[in-house]
């Protein structure tokens, strides 16, 4: 089977099958940082696992803890090898569980990352997403930029700013642009 797919998410990183040739690959936190450094990106995001919104609390808690260990590994790699001037953003996880979101926000805020991204599953619908973002931003310090990953619909941008988000990214504008639409 040549179809690309995740084979395992483990402490070492993510093992997956390449969609190009079916070969098995490992992407580790350090590899992720190395790739972003080689690309010359102004901003690097630490390695994390984005759990689906239906993941149970136990899995989400274990995944979030691993993401925090990966955060440390990414920051250590960047301290030793990262390009001058490249910013590193930590990523808050915790799924749709308020206590896990707060713990994750505190862990990322306690690190020396330059900015804080809110990622992962934000819920089954917009109302739940806004609630999760609200929990998270309320627990974040205001001394660093706050970024919302993967959200780009106009109403969500407006609500995100109201909730304390500074920047956003999303594939939606690119998808629309491919079809001749503009925002």
Spell out the blueprint of helices and strands:
Elements: E1 5-10, E2 13-17, E3 24-27, H1 29-39, E4 43-45, H2 57-81, E5 87-92, H3 98-110, E6 115-118, H4 126-139, E7 146-148, H5 154-162, E8 167-168, H6 172-178
Helix pairs in contact: 1-2, 2-3, 3-4
Highlighted features:
single chain, five-stranded parallel β-sheet, about 180 residues, three-stranded antiparallel β-sheet, alpha/beta, about 45% helix, 6 helices
How does this model look, in words?
With 183 residues, the protein is α/β, with parallel strands linked by helices. It is 43% helix and 18% strand. The protein contains six helices and eight strands, in the order βββαβαβαβαβαβα. Strands 4-5-6-7-8 form a five-stranded parallel beta sheet. It has a three-stranded antiparallel beta sheet with strand order 1-2-3. Strand 4 (43-45), helix 2 (57-81) and strand 5 (87-92) form a beta-alpha-beta unit. Helix 1 (29-39) packs across helix 2, helix 2 packs parallel to helix 3 (98-110) and helix 3 crosses helix 4. The radius of gyration is 17 Å and the shape is globular. 32% of the residues are buried.
Radius of gyration: 17 Å
Strand content: 15-25%
DSSP E strands, number: 8
Enumerate the spans where pLDDT stays under 50 for 5 or more consecutive residues: none
Q: What letter string, H or E per element, gives the SSE order?
A: EEEHEHEHEHEHEH
